[in-house]
């Protein structure tokens, strides 16, 4: 949250933000031998005012074609999300709407649907994942232009499911910047991992003709 506070006070130099972004891309390339097919910001900082512009410039410069636009269909109806967290999510949503045109101008793409805020941590379950997917697909298809002669399964819909599978961090190891935060240290990351590998969920994917893939496969 310190990044958002500094930005709101005008304490960030966008040339330094751009320099940092490029340094991270270069380090990724050095470590892996290739550029990332996708890039976004921790805590969605890539859609913040000012940041969104330099972020888009860096992605275009390196030819990184995919990012994340964290607007989740049905989010407003998720009454299990605490009000303070919902306020943060709605702020991210507003920033995302204001970022879309910037990303488009730079030729950056993102999946048709984003899910993950309503299914994060303790709120993740097989039923919640599928409820979020069903809600999102219905909303997406209601807005999508219909082909002149629609045929069953003629439209491939891409969905990003944001997840945080892992194991609880033990300070001072883990986390970002100043060490692990409360979420990194909690049981919730392991809960996500255990949910995502459940045979029941894998069976749902197969039954519903869902193919798991990476951004590089899009």
From TrEMBL:
Descriptive protein name: Carbohydrate deacetylase
InterPro entries assigned to the protein according to its UniProt record, in alphabetical order: Glyco_hydro/deAcase_b/a-brl, YdjC-like
Cofactors (names): Mg(2+)
Gene Ontology process terms (BP): carbohydrate metabolic process
Protein family membership: Belongs to the YdjC deacetylase family.
A Pfam entry, by short name: YdjC
Function: Probably catalyzes the deacetylation of acetylated carbohydrates an important step in the degradation of oligosaccharides.
Keywords recorded for this protein, A-Z: Carbohydrate metabolism, Hydrolase, Magnesium, Metal-binding
GO molecular function, one term: hydrolase activity
